[in-house]
């Protein structure tokens, strides 16, 4: 709905933390929710009009109209019968809609598990049997035209997973596994956002869903499954510094000694569109800025600042992380 | 009359650096600002007019236009600045600021924007 400027934001704007566009569906699940939303808006508008009309009759209507409005018949019809019929119909419609959004994984579905963390997203691609096939963070890659079942968990407090253009929104509750299905009809980048207040940096807890053409998706996943090339030159120094500075205590990088789980998986951080959970573009400069002083960018987040590292070292680490694609 | 002229001449001496210093013909300040936002310069710099982020690893750019030097090492001139924002290490070896993903025209827009930070 491009004529609704306040709802429509470009990815660039979404990058700077602004909520992604709503009522602008890009797949079947989001479409049905958008339809429901418009039905609700229309009904709310109709009820408002009805109430205003009744108010006008009560204040300024003729004697005859006013007496009609005053009887108990109006109360029975407009006050009880109408709401019961309309709300029941709406309840059935709404429940059947959310059921299609929440069916458990089908054999043909792509499965992804996303865990809410303060204030980022742990991502695990699952195989058919539900085992973890690949770990990642803050970005989810999906093929176009396929249903993706997202299993949602939380490791601390309640978060909410919301990619407005691809599906509904559902809470991530500690100790529970909620399921949400999503699908994209066209390749592109779709912004997501935590939609349940979860502490200071809640507004800075975003992510990206990247939808690929099926062939492109297969190629992309195959490339990721291959071991990363050995870093050389400056990147090799960066790899050493990464290890010496203790980054690996919190971050995992596949195929290296770094196996920490307290922070986002960095095995593929070089190919992410964003840094800091959807909040910054990803380039050499923002990478250096994040590692050197993440607290100025996302106050209270759980990564310490490394401003004591000399600029040359920050640059080398950034060069190393860029190679992890 | 003579005193008046002398006064004007004297005051003229107090003028800020010549207008030409910050001239960037053909560059677009608005586009520069958008580029600054898109490339995330504010991940390391406080830049007045950009509310978020306000990174603190690099120098604060409030009043940048009044600075005599860039990074304390090269004169703050339009051509220098446009080259610096694009590839800082080429001008100032050892700087933490990396080359940024900007082409030459974009770098001029960014420089023009930075000269509005008075
Ligand atoms: Cu939140």
TrEMBL record, chain A:
Keyword presence, Glycoprotein: no
Domain (Cytochrome c): residue spans on this chain: 233-325
Residues that span the membrane, as ranges: 38-62, 74-95
Segment forming the signal sequence: none
Keywords associated with the record: Copper, Electron transport, Heme, Iron, Membrane, Metal-binding, Respiratory chain, Transmembrane, Transmembrane helix, Transport
Residue span(s) of domain Cytochrome oxidase subunit II copper A binding: 107-223
Main location: membrane
UniProt xrefs under InterPro entries: CcO_II, CcO_II-like_C, Cupredoxin, CuRO_CcO_Caa3_II, Cyt_c-like_dom, Cyt_c-like_dom_sf, Cyt_c_oxidase_su2
GO annotation, cellular component aspect: membrane
CDD domains: CuRO_CcO_Caa3_II
Membrane topology: Multi-pass membrane protein
PROSITE patterns: COX2_CUA, CYTC
Localization annotation: Membrane
Classification via Gene3D superfamilies: Cupredoxins - blue copper proteins (2.60.40.420)
Domain of life according to the entry: Bacteria
GO biological process: ATP synthesis coupled electron transport
GO molecular function: copper ion binding; cytochrome-c oxidase activity; heme binding; oxidoreductase activity
The UniProt record lists the keyword Protein biosynthesis: no
Recorded catalytic activity of this chain's protein: 4 Fe(II)-[cytochrome c] + O2 + 8 H(+)(in) = 4 Fe(III)-[cytochrome c] + 2 H2O + 4 H(+)(out)
Function noted in UniProt: Subunits I and II form the functional core of the enzyme complex. Electrons originating in cytochrome c are transferred via heme a and Cu(A) to the binuclear center formed by heme a3 and Cu(B).
Family: Belongs to the cytochrome c oxidase subunit 2 family.
This protein's name: Cytochrome aa3 subunit 2
Provenance organism: Sphingobium quisquiliarum P25
TrEMBL record, chain B:
UniProt KW Ribosomal protein keyword: no
Domain Cytochrome c intervals: 27-118
GO molecular function terms listed in the Swiss-Prot or TrEMBL record: electron transfer activity; heme binding; metal ion binding
Alphabetic keyword roster: Heme, Iron, Metal-binding
Gene3D superfamilies found in the cross-reference section: Cytochrome c-like domain
Domain of life, source organism: Bacteria
This protein's name: Cytochrome c domain-containing protein
Organism: Sphingobium quisquiliarum P25
């Amino acid at each position: 709905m491009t004529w609704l400027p306040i709802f429509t934001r470009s990815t660039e704007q979404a990058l700077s933390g602004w909520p992604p566009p709503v009522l602008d569906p890009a797949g079947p699940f989001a479409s049905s929710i958008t339809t429901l939303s418009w039905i609700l808006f229309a009904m709310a508008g109709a009820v408002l009009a009805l109430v205003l009309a009744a108010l006008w009759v009560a204040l300024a209507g003729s004697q005859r109209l006013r007496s009609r409005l005053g009887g108990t018949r109006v109360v029975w019809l407009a006050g009880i019968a109408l709401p019961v019929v309309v709300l029941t119909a709406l309840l059935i419609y709404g429940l059947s809609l959310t059921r299609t959004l929440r069916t458990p994984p089908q054999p043909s579905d792509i499965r992804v598990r996303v865990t809410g963390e303060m204030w980022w997203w742990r991502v695990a691609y699952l195989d058919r049997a539900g085992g973890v096939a690949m770990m990642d963070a803050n970005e989810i890659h999906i093929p176009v035209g396929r249903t993706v079942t997202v299993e949602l968990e939380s490791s601390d407090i309640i978060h909410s997973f919301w990619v407005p253009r691809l599906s509904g929104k559902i809470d991530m509750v500690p100790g529970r596994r909620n399921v949400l299905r999503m699908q994209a009809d066209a390749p592109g980048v779709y912004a997501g956002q935590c939609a349940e207040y979860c502490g200071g940096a809640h507004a800075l807890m975003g992510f990206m869903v990247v939808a690929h053409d099926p062939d492109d998706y297969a190629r992309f996943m195959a490339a990721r499954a291959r071991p990363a090339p050995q870093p050389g030159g400056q990147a090799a120094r960066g790899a050493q510094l990464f290890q010496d500075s203790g980054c690996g205590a919190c971050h995992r990088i596949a195929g290296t000694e770094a196996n920490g789980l307290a922070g986002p998986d960095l095995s593929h951080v070089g190919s992410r569109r964003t840094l800091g959970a959807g909040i910054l573009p990803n380039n050499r400069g923002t990478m250096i800025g994040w590692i050197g002083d993440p607290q100025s960018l996302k106050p209270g987040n759980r990564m310490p600042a490394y401003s004591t590292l000399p600029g040359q070292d920050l640059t080398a680490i950034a060069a190393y992380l860029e190679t992890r694609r | 009359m003579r005193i008046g002229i002398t006064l004007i001449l004297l005051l003229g001496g107090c003028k800020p650096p010549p207008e030409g210093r910050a001239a960037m013909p053909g560059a677009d300040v608005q586009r520069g600002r958008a580029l600054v936002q898109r490339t995330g310069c504010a991940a390391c710099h406080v830049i007045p007019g950009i509310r978020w982020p306000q990174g603190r690893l690099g120098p604060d750019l409030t009043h940048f236009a009044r600075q005599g030097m860039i990074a304390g090492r090269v004169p703050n001139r339009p051509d220098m600045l446009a080259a610096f924002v694009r590839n800082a290490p080429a001008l100032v070896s050892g700087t933490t600021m990396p080359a940024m993903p900007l082409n030459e025209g974009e770098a001029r827009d960014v420089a023009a924007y930075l000269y509005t930070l008075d």
